[in-house]
């Protein structure tokens, strides 16, 4: 029995130490900018901000600024919140009793007494800040490190693969997929992996001629360099890279900004496509991960250096921005849904309707968290080792 506990402790300690610091680094950046978006627009709209918290639960350390806002770091580092004057909870649910007894001066600084436009702007500012953060990170990476490029040349075609069925030959160079220009082998990979089962039209340069090939990526389980298993689309094409073939294209700041915007949109598009495929049964939901998987990936990516870790922070920022825009009460998208109903009705939803909405939202959020943790326990190696 003592050997089991010793093994469990060593496994858990290794996972904790190896993953927790990179995880907190990435998550803190993303959460801070999300909440900063809410905070800055609220200040601009004249709303009094009571609390700006990184994390939930008991306060670890904090201070008050000259406007009366309590800035703090809390014990549970899995998110954050901004609490406005008039809020009953961290989810920005209103307190009818408090709102009804406010003076005229207090109403001027109350979030819930603002017109629907400023309220919607404050709520939307969080996810928008996540997208802006991603664009900034991508832009800086392109500015200082350039754009890596490796020609999308076919060096090997796997026998019986989707590529062979489509008619690919060694030496072919893919220049476009479904009209989207392909500048590198990684560009081609990123499209293929997210389109398993979809027929794609490949524009291929073969010698002096250009041909159109139709191929459908096959869904396979593939292991990444860290040993993680992913289900993704595969054509069965291999690129052999020799010294000097991987080039880095230097770009000016304006081009870097444009590439940052394109990269951000690419991640948004691929994420929404994956979610749509999950709901239609064309993709498995086992790729949805929670904090444990994010921590694992953060630790693994951190071993490659700061640049890949910043890239991961940008991708995570986009994911959190999209998640918060889902029309689920408790999330920013749920509040925006309530405001849309208010505009259509000419008055806010009743307190009872909003309360029921928040209850449903809480159940949905908890279900998503449980499902994500379930996936984590089945796919994070050190957890499987701990309980295996």
What would you say this structure looks like, in words?
The protein has 388 residues and is α+β, with helices and mostly antiparallel strands. It has twelve helices and twelve strands. The chain has helices at 2-44, 96-100, 104-108, 116-145, 162-166, 185-192, 253-279, 291-302, 306-324, 332-345, 351-379, 381-387; strands spanning 49-64, 70-84, 147-149, 156-157, 173-177, 180-181, 200-206, 209-215, 218-223, 229-234, 237-238, 247-249. A four-stranded antiparallel beta sheet has the order 6-5-7-8. It has a two-stranded antiparallel sheet with strand order 1-2. β7 (200-206) and β8 (209-215) form a beta hairpin. The two termini are 14 Å apart. Residues 1-13 have low confidence and may be disordered.
Question: Could you name the ranges where pLDDT drops below 50 across 5 or more consecutive residues?
Answer: 1-13
Spatial separation of the terminal alpha carbons: 14 Å
Major beta sheet, specifics?
A: 4 strands, antiparallel
Order of helices and strands: HEEHHHEEHEEHEEEEEEHHHHHH
Q: What percent of residues adopt helix (DSSP H or I)? A: 40-55%
Large-scale geometry: elongated
Strand content: 15-25%
Total helices: the number is: 12
The secondary-structure class comes to alpha+beta
User: Which strands sit side by side, in order, in the main sheet?
Assistant: 6-5-7-8
- Average pLDDT number: 82
| Number of DSSP strand runs | 12
> For the CA atoms, what is the radius of gyration?
24 Å
Walk me through the topology.
Elements: H1 2-44, E1 49-64, E2 70-84, H2 96-100, H3 104-108, H4 116-145, E3 147-149, E4 156-157, H5 162-166, E5 173-177, E6 180-181, H6 185-192, E7 200-206, E8 209-215, E9 218-223, E10 229-234, E11 237-238, E12 247-249, H7 253-279, H8 291-302, H9 306-324, H10 332-345, H11 351-379, H12 381-387
Antiparallel strand pairs: 1-2, 3-12, 4-11, 5-6, 5-7, 7-8, 9-10
Helix pairs in contact: 1-4, 1-8, 1-9, 1-12, 4-7, 4-9, 4-10, 7-9
């Amino acid at each position: 029995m003592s050997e089991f506990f010793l093994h469990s402790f060593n496994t858990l300690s290794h996972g904790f130490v190896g993953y927790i610091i990179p995880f907190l680094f990435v998550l803190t950046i993303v959460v801070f900018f999300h909440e900063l978006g809410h905070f800055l627009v609220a200040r601009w709209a004249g709303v009094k901000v009571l609390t700006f918290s990184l994390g939930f639960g008991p306060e670890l350390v904090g201070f008050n600024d000259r406007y009366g806002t309590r800035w703090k770091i809390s014990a549970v580092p899995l998110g954050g919140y901004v609490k406005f004057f008039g809020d009953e909870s961290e989810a920005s649910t209103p307190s009818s009793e408090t709102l009804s007894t406010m003076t005229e001066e207090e109403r001027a600084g109350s979030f819930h007494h603002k017109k629907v436009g400023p309220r919607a702007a404050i709520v939307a500012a969080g996810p928008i800040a996540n997208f802006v953060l991603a664009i900034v990170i991508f832009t800086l990476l392109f500015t200082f490190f350039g754009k890596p490029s490796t020609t999308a040349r076919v060096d090997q075609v796997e026998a019986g693969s989707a590529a062979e069925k489509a008619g690919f030959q060694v030496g072919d160079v893919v220049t476009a997929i479904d009209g989207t220009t392909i500048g590198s082998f990684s560009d081609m990979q990123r499209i293929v992996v997210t389109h398993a089962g979809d027929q794609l039209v490949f524009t291929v340069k073969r010698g002096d001629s250009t041909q159109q090939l139709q191929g459908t990526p096959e869904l396979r389980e593939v292991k990444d360099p860290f040993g993680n298993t992913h289900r993704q689309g595969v054509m069965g094409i291999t690129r052999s890279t020799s010294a000097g073939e991987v080039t880095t294209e230097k770009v000016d700041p304006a081009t870097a900004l444009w590439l940052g915007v394109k990269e951000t949109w690419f991640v948004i598009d691929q994420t929404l496509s994956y979610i749509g495929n999950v709901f239609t049964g064309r993709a498995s939901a086992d790729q949805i991960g929670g904090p444990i998987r994010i921590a694992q990936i953060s630790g693994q990516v951190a071993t490659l250096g700061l640049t890949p870790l910043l890239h991961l922070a940008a991708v995570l920022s986009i994911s959190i921005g999209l998640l918060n825009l889902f029309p689920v009460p408790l999330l920013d998208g749920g509040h925006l849904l309530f405001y849309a109903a208010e505009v259509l009705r000419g008055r806010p939803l009743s307190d009872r309707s909003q309360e029921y909405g928040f209850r449903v939202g809480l159940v949905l959020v908890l279900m998503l968290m449980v499902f994500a943790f379930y996936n984590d326990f089945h796919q994070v190696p050190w957890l499987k080792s701990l309980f295996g």
